[in-house]
Design brief:
By secondary structure, the protein is mainly alpha-helical. The protein is 44% helix and 8% strand. Strand 4 and strand 5 form a beta hairpin. The two termini are 27 Å apart.
Length: 381
């Protein structure tokens, strides 16, 4: 690659967008979405100073509170297994209020989705099981398959989705870390020399389960959702310092999964969200339709039809989502150049921050969503 900061995910997204048949990006919707965090609001100031995404990452009750090697191994394990939490029993995405869906109870509270994974791992650690140690979960002698199943035992009638695949990935990744990186993902980070793009290459070249790649119209395309989340979580946990200091973090893209695209389509009204004691008020959010779907795709989603990983419709949804967020980011950055004080000129507003922002926004307002997220069972998201 001629450009060391080149991210193939962004180029893949643009290619998919340019050739997409059933998913389109609405220019007016992009402009409107960008204005939701305009430089005239207090929201953009918080975003610019990273008070929303970075400083608050460790404040969640299930996230590590210290930025150290233990946190690195925790983040790696979580993002290794962070995929496919949508439930057959919960088509309305009610979350913890749907008692049939897969969930984990920990410290008197029930968690679903991504947080159920965090809760299961933290519960194991609390019980004295060194589940985040690569040499431990790589070994069938130290940790049997039945013990892994017990760690992720659901408190409902629905088992953890793709549990057998998760067990295989645990073994594979644990062996790779033990044999190539002296048993710690921190050594992968050190090899990257403070470059997020170098780390992305190290991850995707060494760990097959992070190699989120397909072919679109005969052309190889990359999405790298979990690999980029892994880098973004480390950046947030370390608040951009130490092992989380990446000079090119702004070259990461949003994380294309099954929920994000429908967040870009939905008209939302009157949103106010409280996250870790920091309030974000977005008032009168009318007609937020960044993506438009063909009647065929809308019918497919309404019928809860499974979209195979790597299918055309599935790639169009993911690729156009990535490109749409990039377009939103560019508009906001251009506006920041007009209104930002000179001493704040270098403060970042990257796709990771926008991803965190929109994901939490839609998670808190699922009841307002009028269409279904696409359904794909995959280890990649």
């Amino acid at each position: 690659m001629g450009n060391p900061c080149f991210n193939p995910v962004l180029e893949s997204a643009r290619f998919i967008f340019e050739h997409s048949q059933d998913v389109k990006i609405d220019g007016e919707g992009v402009e409107h979405a960008a204005k939701l965090v305009s430089p005239h609001s207090t929201d953009i100031i918080a975003l610019m100073k990273n008070k929303y995404s970075i400083a608050n990452w460790k404040q969640h009750e299930l996230h590590p509170k210290s930025a150290n090697d233990e946190a690195i191994n925790w983040i790696f394990l979580v993002d290794l297994l962070n995929f496919s939490f949508w439930s057959e029993f919960d088509p309305q995405e009610k979350g913890t209020s749907c008692l049939e869906r897969f969930g984990i109870s920990f410290n008197g509270k029930r968690y679903t989705g991504y947080w159920s994974l965090c809760a299961a791992i933290n519960r194991a650690l609390k019980n004295g099981i060194p589940i985040t140690t690569p040499a431990f979960y790589a070994s069938t002698e130290k940790l049997s398959n039945s013990e892994i199943k017990q760690i992720f035992q659901s408190d409902s009638i629905e088992p953890m989705p793709l549990l057998a695949e998760r067990i295989n990935l645990l073994r594979e990744a644990g062996q790779i870390l033990t044999e190539r990186f002296n048993g710690s993902f921190a050594n992968c980070i050190l090899r990257a020399n403070n470059s997020a793009m170098n780390l992305l290459n190290i991850i995707t070249e060494n760990f097959p389960s992070f190699r989120d790649e397909c072919e679109f119209l005969g052309i190889p395309v990359q999405f790298y959702k979990r690999a980029q989340i892994l880098i973004g979580d480390i950046w947030a946990c370390f608040e951009g310092q130490g092992l989380g200091n990446f000079h090119d973090i702004d070259y990461m893209t949003m994380f294309a999964d099954y929920r994000f695209a429908f967040e870009l389509r939905i008209p939302i009204i009157g949103f106010r969200y409280n996250y870790s004691n920091n309030h974000f008020s977005l008032k009168a959010l009318h007609n937020l339709r960044v993506l438009s779907y063909s009647p065929h795709l809308l019918e497919t989603l309404s019928a809860l039809t499974l979209l195979p990983y790597g299918s055309r419709l599935e790639m169009e949804i993911r690729g156009c989502s990535i490109w749409a967020v990039e377009l939103i980011r560019r508009i906001i950055v251009n506006e920041l150049k007009k209104f930002s004080p000179e001493d704040d000129a270098t403060l970042p507003l990257n796709a990771i921050i926008l991803d965190f922002y929109i994901w939490d926004f839609a998670t808190a307002n699922k009841s307002m969503m009028s269409i279904k997220a696409h359904r794909t069972r995959s280890i990649f998201y």
